[in-house]
Each structure stands twice: as structure tokens, then as C-alpha cells.
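ok so i was messing around last nite and threw this chain in just to see what happens. nothing serious, just curious
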Amino acid sequence: MESATALFSLIIALPLLGFLINGLTGLFVESYRNKRQLIGSIASTAVFIPFVIAVYFFINMNAGSEALVYKLFTWMDVGTFSVDVAYRVDQLSVMMTMVVTGVGFLIHIYSMGYMSHDEGYWKFFAYLNLFIFAMLNLVLGNNLLLLFLGWEGVGVCSYLLIGFWYTDMAKSDAAKKAFIYNRIGDFAFLIAMFMIFQTVGSLNFDVILGNLDSFTEGYMVAIGLLMFVGATGKSAQIPLFVWLPDAMAGPTPVSALIHAATMVTSGIYLISRMSPMYVMIPEVMIIISVIGALTAIVAATIAITQNDIKGVLAYSTVSQLGYMFLALGAGGFTAAMFHVVTHAFFKACLFLGSGSVIHAMEHVEHGLHKEGKDVHFDPQDMRFMGGLKKYMPSTYKTFLIATVAIAGIPPLAGFFSKDEVLAMTMNAGFVDGGSWVYMMLWGVGIITAFLTAFYMFRLTLTTFHGSFKLPTKIKEAVGSEKFLHENPWNMTTPLWILAILAIFGGFLGVPNFIVETFTHEPAHINLLHDWLYKVNADYSIVMSHALEWGLMAVSILIAISGVWLAFRMYNNDQQEESDAKIASRFGGLYSVWKDKYNLDDVYEGLVANPTVKFSDKVLAVFDMKVVDGIVNAIAGTVRLFGSLFRYLQTGVVSSYALAFVIGVIVILYLMIS
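result:
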């Protein structure tokens, strides 16, 4: 057991060690900052070894294994409150650990190429390692407080990485926006933790989930809602999702790691971990599904109108997170985690692919500058791209694979996970006490699936097909395609690995009904469902096999329809013309989508401005008149008494001796009497 504890502790310790080595050495030894290969190798190794160890634990575990708890030390022990730094290795946590460290390692390798010319190279890798450390505490913590430590840690790292290029005020503002919006959700989560401790006297998962009957129904509903509010902040759901698109201001590897594969899935992980509690409060489950479905379709409609390559992927991420919450609220906790895994594969591939494109476009701009041409353009604007598949074959092929996956085309990963999300949503309408609301939400999910296939192929076709548009947009850029080239191996290799995972990752969750239809016996080909059955409290599937086949057929037809329409409208340099047609067809509604539903303006008008005015008119006055008044009054009182008592300080020794004698006499009198 001690050797296992020592081995496990490396999973947590190595990323922290990588942060300390690169961070402290880079801070105090200036010459170290130029050793980029060494810095990148240390940071990558600090993530790769934990991945290997996580795989070892996975191999030595089966679906029926009991959770292992590794206690390192007691963190707090005050009265009846005791919290250990203890980590939980079970089917859910080991799966998340492999995703975090596996995808994280690939992104570290990619970053060695992408950030190679950045002056803050050492600092960037230190932050990445610190983020991995915090994320591992989140997914492995055996109690809510340790999970919350990781929860806050990833929030801090997100702030540091989004605002990495902090001299640009827009990027700095985006970092502050992400930090503030997350604090709102975190406050709700903190209150939920207080309520849980008040009821069961512990924050350990085993104690909480083993004493659910100690909670009153109203108390459990309140805790469930507060935790969900916390999840909406971290996982970017309505009403707290507006920070995530702005977070694309950070370097592209940050978008891939934090805003696709890891941090934004924290809320889904939390609710899955607490699934035995959530199935006892179906009214909260419906709210979760409704918010998830609304977020999915709202973000999808915005994505249709975006021209920034990372902006499309950002809203796509928000939409896919909405799918995950739709599944959670429908009792499909395993379906949600399945989509977490497949989404990590194809969305990380898409973000890194977009980074590869942006890197190439920036190279074009720099090449033109070297020729003495004062040409400036947005390297993330798709309207300047086109025809890149000729110059960047690896980036194109991997990007296309990931696009097919997220569009839900079989047999790629996104098809199986998205189909299971939709199936579990419909299924929730048939379980005992089920609601027709879920059937309506299934319809919203289907519409969103169509939009996803459409806007993702709009992105891919506009970026890689047709002709290179920069020379037609800017006269001085004629001939600039000569600067386009594929990126180095350390940027393309992670793309290929993620693309392969996007192809085959879906076979972890092939639906059982495909086999059961023909054998008429229970099947166990859904490996992920069998793996997580002890951890997740999923609803049982009560639909007929015929209905399941029908739902799958509809899902496939919808995805193919979205792809077909995108090819028809965007395949031959038709982006601006087709966008204009859509704008004309939908009129004011398209303007609402393009303006992102004006949510930032709404929040500023309803929350930010009134808060500033209240602070200026009330709190500032209270601070000056009351707080400062009390402080000044105390100071004035002290000064008054000081001015009176100073007359007793005559400086004459005989006066002091007389006072001393009188004092002694008074004390003796009091003692005798």
C-alpha cells in the first residue's frame, strides 16, 4: 500500500514540481529562459509520467473494483471539522485523469512549436504545469474541499493563461471577465458546501453520498441548485457563459487545454460525481436539462454568424457543453461523461488545428513585412483564408476528421456520444415520473445537431477549400501564398494522434441495442457504461429497440443534412455571399445572433452599471461618512484625552514621587479594607 501511495503521489507531485522548476528557475536565472528545449521537455515530462501512471492504475482496475483512497496528510483538524489531503482512485476519476494528462501532454508538445518564439516561454509552461496540478486535484480529490481547491486553482490558472499577453488590454480584460464570472458560480458552490457540512458534518464523498437520507427535500434541492450554479460558471452555461468566447484571447494551446478538454468540463464532472443525489431531485434535473438545451442552441446560432476561426470553435464548445448538461439532467450521466471524452479528442484537435492555421497566417504577415509591405490583417479571420488544404495537408486532413466527428457522422466518435445524449434525453420522458419536457428538449437537441454540422463545415470549407482570399482582399498581399507552409512535426503529430482518437474513441460507447436487437439477450458492448456503472446513477433505458433505431436514424439524417447544406452554400468561395443570403432570410433574427443576443450589453445594463452607480452614490458615501467617520472619531477621542492627560506629565521628579506614594497608599488601603 505504501508503494502504491508513493507511486500515486507522483501523479499529483510531478506537475507541481515542473511548475516550481520552470517557474522559479526562470524567475531568478535569466539565462535559463533561453533554454526552450529543456523547459518544454521538463514541462511535458511532468505531465507524461502521470499519464503513464494513470494508465497503470487503469489496467489494474476493473468495473467492479472498489474505490481506493490515498491519504497523504491531514489538512485541517479543528473541532469536529477534519479534512485530509486524500485522493480517490475510482472508475470516474481515473478516466478523467487519463484525459487530463493524455490530452494535456499532447498540448504541451504542440506548445513547444507554437510558442517557440515567445519571450514568456518559460512562464507559459510553468502556468500549464500549475494548471494540470490544479485540475488533477479537482478530479482526484476525495472530498469537496480538496476538489474546491482544484476548482479555484484552475480558475486562477485560467486567468493567468487567458491574460498571458497582458500588455494587450483586450486580452487582460478577457482574463478579468473570466475570473469575475467564475467567482459568481464559485460563491454558490461554496454555500452548497457549507450546507452539506452543516447537515452531515463532513465533506468526504463517501459520507455525503452515504447519508443522503439526512437531507430534507428542500435542503437537497437548494444544494443541487447551488452546485449547478457553480457548474454554470465553470462550464460556461446560461447565464454565465459569456466569458468563454472572450477567453479565446489567450494563446491557442490554452484554448485547446482549458476551454475544450479540461477546465470547462469541471461542472459536468462535479454533477456526475454527485449523481446519486441529483437523481433524488428530479425538479432540479429538469432545470439542468432545460439550461443545457437552451445554451446549446443559443451558442449554435451565434456560431453560424462568426468569422473568427477561434470564435466559431468557442461558441461550438459552449454548445457542446450544453449537450453534456442536457444529458446530465436526463439521467444520462455516463452519456455526458462519454461526450466529455470524445469532445476532448475532436475539440482539442480543432483548436490546435486552428492554431496551426493562425500560425501560418501570422507567418504570411511577417513575410510581407520583411518584403517592406505594410500589410496588416486579422490572422484569425476566415474571410482572409481559403485554399489552405493545398499548403497545409496534415492540418487540413486532421481538421476535417475532427469536423466530421463533431458533426455526428458515423462511425466517428462524436456520432456515438451525441447519439447517446439525444437517446437518453428522449428516454427520460418515458421513465417513471418522466416529463414531456424532455421530448421537447430532444427536439432542441436535434436542431442543434443540424446547426453544429452546418457551421462546422462552413468553417472547414471556408478555411481550407476554394482559393486563398488574402491577395483578393488586400492588393499589397498579391503572391503572399508563397509564405504558406505546413507547421513542424511537434505541431502536426499531436493533431494526428487526436484525429485518430476522434475516429476510434466512439467505440468506447457503442449502444447495446445494436447487438441486443439481433441476439435478444442483454449485451455489454457499451464499454464506458459498464465501466462507470458503480459511480454514475444513470436512469435505466426503457425505450424499445425500434425507437432507439429510429432515433439513431434521425440523428444520422440530420447530421448529413447539415453537411450537405454547408457544402452547397460554402464549398466554392461562397462564404460572404451565403452569409448575406442567410442574413436576408432571417432578417432581424440573424442580427440578434450576430450581436450575440446582446447579452454583454444586457448584463452591463442590468448588473454592472447599477452596481457602479450604487457603489458611487451609496457605498462611497457610507465609506467616507460612516467608516471614515468612526475612524476619525476614535482618533479624535484619543487626541482629546491625550491633550488632557499631558498636563499630568510635568517633568518634575518630586511630583512623580508624590504620585507614586499616593498610589501605594491607595493600594494598601484597598488590600487592608
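not much to say yet. The chain has a mean pLDDT of 92.
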